[in-house]
Amino acid sequence: MAATKEKFDAAVKVIQSIPPNGSFVPSQSMMLKFYAYYKQATEGPCNIPRPSFWEVIAKAKWDAWNGLSDMPPHEAMANYVEELKKIIEAMPHTEHVQGFVEKLGDFYEAIDELPPGFDKKPKYWMNSNGDLPKVTEVDVNGSSDSGIDGEELGEILSAGELH
């Protein structure tokens, strides 16, 4: 599995590559978290004077960064990665997203296991246009809530209709 710095660098590429008007637009509070963790990881604790009241965006960024106080850079990197892991499924599949997922190692293997007492697990599909994933419940025998049985699902997958 990749080191924290490698995961952080891959996560930064994902966040920096999000198109401003794409299908996934992070909230301002989410982006402030990423900004604060990035600054803490790359520059350490906030070391600039607080912007004036009139500089609303600069003040919000300063408040977010300064709020991390003396958090160590490696912890800020790890938090940045953890925040991205929370939203990665909602993002379009891009080269940067793929690179990040590869750095995570067994992230998807761990959530693929069924907890005790559960007989269904989510399967994520993304169409070739890169649209947001659609979650379909599929039971362990291959049938789904959408009425597609395991054989039909296999035909769909082999025809390349879903990715």
TrEMBL record:
Keywords: Lipid-binding. The keyword Lipid metabolism does not apply. The keyword Flavoprotein does not apply. GO terms for molecular function: fatty-acyl-CoA binding. It comes from the Eukaryota. Residues 141-163 are annotated as: Disordered. GO terms for biological process: fatty acid metabolic process. Gene3D superfamilies: 1.20.80.10. GO terms for cellular component: cytoplasm. Pfam families: ACBP. Residues 4-93 form the ACB domain. This is ACB domain-containing protein.
